[in-house]
Design goal:
Elements (H helix, E strand, L loop, with lengths): L4 E5 L4 E5 L2 E6 L3 E5 L5 E5 L8 E10 L3 E9 L4 E8 L13 E4 L6 E5 L1
Antiparallel strand pairs: 1-4, 2-3, 2-10, 4-5, 5-9, 6-7, 7-8, 8-9
InterPro entries: DUF427 (IPR007361), DUF427_sf (IPR038694)
Pfam families: NTP_transf_9
């Protein structure tokens, strides 16, 4: 495991909102911190309305976590391209991320917040 990446259970209940809809709500989210970057919240797939997410063709590679597979979010009024990602086969030490999805929270169209 990489020393500058930490994964822990996120305290409280977390939600994802996009296009006026709640896409996810979880008390079992994970918080990933990587160095000085802002924490990223990963939601278990079973707590996400996956019908709103369409797999995209984009794949990114992180040498510390593995290949990230992206999803676009379908709202009533728009498609938010590559607004979520998942490490389907994370590398050794990052296994807790398997079956979890993170959302691009720095977008004006997606909100990830603790309630």
């Amino acid at each position: 495991m990489v020393d500058h990446i930490k994964i822990r259970k996120a305290d409280g209940t977390w939600v994802v909102r996009a296009g006026g809809a709640v896409l996810a709500e979880s008390r079992n989210a994970l918080e990933l911190t990587e160095g000085e970057q802002a924490p990223v919240i990963y939601f278990p797939r079973e707590d996400i309305a996956m019908a709103f997410l369409d797999p995209s063709e984009q794949i990114g590679h992180c040498p510390h976590m593995g290949d990230a597979h992206y999803f676009s979010i379908q709202t009533e009024s728009q498609t938010l391209s590559n607004a979520a990602w998942s490490y389907q086969s994370p590398i050794e030490g990052m296994e807790p991320l398997k079956d979890h999805v993170a959302f691009r929270a720095n977008s004006p169209d997606v909100a990830v917040e603790r309630v």
